[in-house]
Amino acid sequence: MTKTDALNLLFQLAIDRNEAGGYKVSATDASGRTVPPDRLSSFLYFNNEQALYGLLSVTDENAVHLKTNDFLQLFTGKTHPFASFSGRTSDDEAHLAALQEAAKVWNEPDFWQHAELDAGMIRFDEEKIGISALSSMILHDAIREKIEASAIRFEQLPALLPHLRKFGWPGETVTNMPVRVAFRLTEPDAETDTEWLLETVVVSERGAHWTPAVRKLNADMADALPAKWKEFADEIREKQSEMASFLRSVEIDPGNRFLSMPMSDPEVRMFIQEDLPVFQSFGYSVILPAWLKSVTESKMRVRTNASVQSYRSAAGLDEVLSFDWNFSLAGKDIDQDSFRKLVDENREYIRSGDEWFHIDPLWLKRIRELMEQADAGEWTVKDLLFQEIPEEIVPVEDDDEADDPLLAFSMQQSLREYVDMVANKHGLPDAGVPAALKAELRPYQIEGYNWLVFMREYRFGACLADDMGLGKTVQLISYLLNVHARPETDAPSLIICPTSVLGNWQKEIERFAPSLIVHTHYGPSRAKDEEFDRLVAERKPDVILTTYGTATQDDETLGGTVFASITLDEAQNIKNMQTKQSRAIRKLHGDHQIALTGTPIENRLSELWAIFDFIHKGYFGSFRTFTDQFIIPIERDDSELEKRKLRAKIRPFLLRRTKNDPDLQLNLPKKLEQNEYCPLTTEQAALYESFIEDTKFKLDTLTGFERKGLILKMLSRLKQLCNHPSLFLKEPHAPADQMLERSVKLNRIVSMAADIAANGEQCLIFTQYIGMGQLIRQCLSELHDIDVPFLSGSMPKGQRDHLVEAFQAGEFPIFILSLKAGGTGLNLTGANHVLHADRWWNPAVENQATDRAYRIGQTKFVHVHKFVTVGTIEEKIDKMLEEKAALSADLIQSSQWLTELSDRELDDLLSFER
User: Fold this and answer.
1) Cα-Cα-Cα-Cα dihedral of 618, 619, 622, 627, to 10°?
2) Does 650 share its domain with 501?
3) Least confident of 204-208, 242-246, 388-392
4) Domain count within the chain
5) 799-833 pLDDT tens trace
């Protein structure tokens, strides 16, 4: 085998042609593996600079989409030196051969000589030029595409064919002339002069117009041209002859002279109506009088009012929209028949009285298509609300710069009120809070729950983006109770979350919905493939919990189930749409998709596309389409119009409430405390078990004072281990990303603090250990570029006072404090989040620290997060504190109570539950 053979890649193509003549192409390699469409595109478009070598190609998850013209173009230039293509099946091979055969004819200089028109079809003498019937059909499709891309009507082709045979398709001939040839139409000079003038002008590189002097109008073109252009005389003559051959308004062959001919009003009218659209479609330059050029499309107005009619369904979102269309030209109303006639005649310039108006015929054609769709009853209130109707019909917010739009859209008052109600999520049908819910929902949480159920009923995905602390979890759990109380629900719901909050979900479902059967799909011993299917069939769980990493690894296992619902917690984890994780999760199947996120997504455009591609697939089209429609205009041009359009499109799918909403403030406590449960990593768990066994052995040999001292030392060591194994092992710090992998708690604290900062809020992080504070500080600096001060007992008073003042002034978002040094005496009301990285055994000490933010002068809701590692001494002591607090707060005002535990209590405390 030669080196070239080894490098050669064979792509086996599956070619699917649709009725419109377009193609969907997928490929496998020589080993039978599916080739990603983006990779296939780069090989197909290897030599196509116009398509940016495949970057502009249209792809979906499985295939590349090509028009016939595109496909032919791929086989006309140089193909990739290390790639070859064959058909996957015999039919595919035949189609590929026909495409290659057609491509060869398509690019021959005498191509149009072989084309004939027969009963509306373009046909070729297949035997004469040596092509198959399939190749002939492909060429027909390619020509039709070429015509449709212009403003020419297909029925004009018979008249144009002789000119195409002589000159080819205009614009395809490459020229090196430093000038271009144009026709110029000049209106009569005076009221008594009725003749117009059509002449050829030469336009220089600087845009100056040149015509021959009057005395040289009849001279040979080479003699009339200035000396600097004489060498281009033949090319200029050829271009003029080509343009003149397309004139329908007059019949003239200027020969070897520059065209200069008078025209009457009827001839000008025909020139504007018939010739001009063809010239513009073919890219020929036509210079019109200034007054005619200044006429814009704004002279034509279309107005429509939407209302509802009940002939198709009862009421609500399924009710069919009815449209009332009105048209005007230059302020004068015209009827629908006149409008339709304009469309049918494909006219671009229209004369009304003594005035000319320029109208884009493609725009008129589009409006007529919309009218036909609307009159056929294709759109409902639901389509209008969720922007699933053409964008021309979508009402956008008022725009001062577009106060006189081409197409003005309005809604019947009752319809507007209904759409506003659903869009604003107020007054939705009451789903009834499930009796099995062990919580009392606040009014705004009931609204969120009703909205999730409503979105499910109408099969629309939902993004619940409430601020951190407003209870997204309990709203989702209420929804799950509703779904799994229905007799028709026979599949589990799937929740995918970061590893750091897996314990939180277990605890919260157990607390608020103990009736739900939960299975955690996580860890090395988890069920896979058939075993997973058997587990679901036998145990019939209501909810399956898993992590992003596990879902990515087990995408085939999970992909075999159609879940009752799929929820992504912290959905911003799939923001990078090209990662394996994002692609795998977006392929999962569910009856309803929900995204939960506490961070605003409206301004993170690539993240927004990925989330919406999950919750309501296809809503924004491909990412390339979304980039062209929104990302480029918004990020490059800062387009306010596109921002408004985007907000209007995402609004129905997005429910976001913030703690600053005045309506919510009345329903919230001033302070919310909650535990954030985190599992140990495998490394931590092994160290934890080993240390406990060793400590238990030592305790059995000690009594009295020594035993108490060992217990307190042991507790401190275990708390350090729960924070991070490097603190326990007294290791130096490694790079931040490596340190995060070894502790879920550290990962969670860092990500939560970064989210709080990104949301424009401030937080305090308390820890008992200098090493933990330094570790958090390092990670926030390296990974999120946030410089975080750390106030410890060694900091001088002057520096401490300066930092407190700067934090209160909002100069930095995150402040790390040693529990002892920063737990009392400071006023830090700038913060509305307090994170306790490790638990103090005396709640009074924690409360004093929390009160640095939650004190007089605090006007914001304060959210307190207490980090607890699942199954460890932290969780067990947290439960003990709750029980003892219920009996007497006096009993736990110090940590000494821990040394007085009985042997049974101590044994329970030292047990470890994985």
Assistant:
1) -170
2) yes
3) 388-392
4) 5
5) 888 998 899 999 999 999 987 777 666 788 899 89
